[in-house]
């Protein structure tokens, strides 16, 4: 069986099932994290009467930390392929898709790490899935909490913008029926 030049293009490569599964896990997690952040920030500040705010924050942090691990696994599985494609002779649309993925992975990582650092400097503890206490980096520090909260906020807004571009590209590929969407649904 010979390998043709067309079979080496990313659009014609079948993604491993674990990458497809991680893609949809990450997509669902990011959607939940955006929705939950707006919800949890609208809750009243904690007090003796309002202690229920801890659950949504812990859930948000747990899903964020799990997302971070999923992104690391995806990057480990795809980074060699993506970096090789950046320097290859792909068309501009395919190069844009590669850069989109690299930027998505970078922003997802920055969002997760800055959220964890903000939480760490807030003085609030984090328990991973209510089983393992995650250590704080340092004592409570309002200035660093604000710095990392700002990084978290703006990296999440940048991620949202890039995700809209990513979804727009998926719609473009779906309308064009070029096979790119089939990879993510394992239809072929």
What does this structure look like?
- The N terminus is likely disordered.
- This protein has five helices and two strands, in the order H-H-H-E-E-H-H.
- By secondary structure, the chain is mainly alpha-helical.
- The protein is elongated.
- Helices cover 69% and strands 3% of the residues.
- Strands 1-2 form a two-stranded antiparallel ribbon.
- It has one domain: Transmembrane di-heme cytochromes, Chain C (Fumarate Reductase Cytochrome B subunit, Up-down Bundle), CATH 1.20.950.
- A hairpin with a 3-residue loop joins strand 1 and strand 2.
Strand-pairing-aware structural class: mainly alpha
In CATH, the topology is named Fumarate Reductase Cytochrome B subunit
**CATH homology group:** Transmembrane di-heme cytochromes, Chain C
How many helices?
Answer: 5
Oligomeric description of these chains = single chain
Extract low-pLDDT stretches: 1-12
Shape, principal axes of CA atoms? elongated
Concise overview:
This protein has helices at 17-41, 54-86, 92-122, 142-176, 180-185; strands at 126-128, 132-134. It has 188 residues and is mainly α. Strands 1-2 form a two-stranded antiparallel sheet.
């Amino acid at each position: 069986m010979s390998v043709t030049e067309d079979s080496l293009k990313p659009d014609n490569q079948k993604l491993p099932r674990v990458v497809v599964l991680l893609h949809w896990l990450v997509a669902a997690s990011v959607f939940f994290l955006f929705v939950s952040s707006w919800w949890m920030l609208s809750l009243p500040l904690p007090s003796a009467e309002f202690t229920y705010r801890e659950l949504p924050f812990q859930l948000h942090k747990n899903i964020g930390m799990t997302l971070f691990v999923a992104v690391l696994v995806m990057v480990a599985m795809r980074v060699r392929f993506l970096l090789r494609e950046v320097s290859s002779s792909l068309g501009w649309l395919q190069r844009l898709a590669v850069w989109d993925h690299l930027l998505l992975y970078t922003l997802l990582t920055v969002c997760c790490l800055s959220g964890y650092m903000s939480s760490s400097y807030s003085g609030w503890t984090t328990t991973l899935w209510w089983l393992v206490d995650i250590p704080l980096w340092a004592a409570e520090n309002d200035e660093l909490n604000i710095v990392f909260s700002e990084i978290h906020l703006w990296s999440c807004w940048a991620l949202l913008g890039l995700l809209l571009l990513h979804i727009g590209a998926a719609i473009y590929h779906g309308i064009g029926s070029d096979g790119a969407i089939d990879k993510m649904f394992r239809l072929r």
